[in-house]
């Protein structure tokens, strides 16, 4: 079973609307959580990184939240644009050894006009 | 532009061919990585290099052979691949040597090389 589960697997939203992506993880002990954006046919690009003590972090219209107690994170996209169409990957780091990264399968978002 | 350049972007090869993927990072990082990304599966770490020394091989078949001549360049040599090896191969780099997931160690990915084995 994957240590990082993302939902929904895919969603379609209208341009200008908001959406929220979910990430649940079982990685322990926890070090940090990252969200990456991956455009089709491109490499992932870092959006945010949050440590245990951080509850929220924003990057433009992207806002990530973290609840380390329930092991949940969300990525909120505000006023979506066509360029937000991409896969959003949740990555969780384990706090030991070389801080191994556990990757989710991604949330596929399609923004339509 | 992330500072990590991969070539070629697309590669089609037969099962008996020998080809290589190339990666170059312009970020002054000390660690470089190869990842495999297959459809509907999480990214899979293949190899880790720190200061051009291999520090991790994640049980990758020997038909994949990495080479790291220096901290800025990384190759993945491909030989007698199988159709199931078709995937997007991502190169990445980071500042810290081997501490992949440390909070101050952002991983920068290249654009990837799409590999199709026929």
Describe this structure in words.
The complex is a heterodimer of chains A (113) and B (118). With 113 residues, chain A is an all-beta fold. Chain A has strands spanning 4-7, 10-14, 19-25, 30-38, 45-51, 56-59, 62-67, 72-77, 86-94, 101-103, 107-112. In chain A, a hairpin with a 6-residue loop joins β4 and β5. The N and C termini of chain A lie far apart (37 Å). Chain B is mostly beta strands and 118 residues long. In chain B, strands 2, 4, 5, 6, 9, 10 and 11 form a 7-stranded mixed sheet that branches. A 4-stranded antiparallel sheet of chain B has the order 1-3-8-7, with no helix packed on it. Chain A binds chain B through residues 2, 4, 31-32, 36, 41-46, 49, 51, 89, 93-94, 98-106, and chain B through 2, 4, 6, 40-43, 45, 55-56, 90, 92, 98-103, 105-112, 114.
User: In total, how many beta strands of chain A?
Assistant: 11
- Helix count of chain A equals 0
Content of β-strand of chain B: over 45%
**Mean pLDDT of chain B, as a whole number?**
91
Backbone shape of chain B: globular
Largest interface: A-B, 25 and 27 residues
How much of the sequence of chain A is in beta strands? over 45%
Backbone structural class of chain B: mainly beta
Oligomer: heterodimer
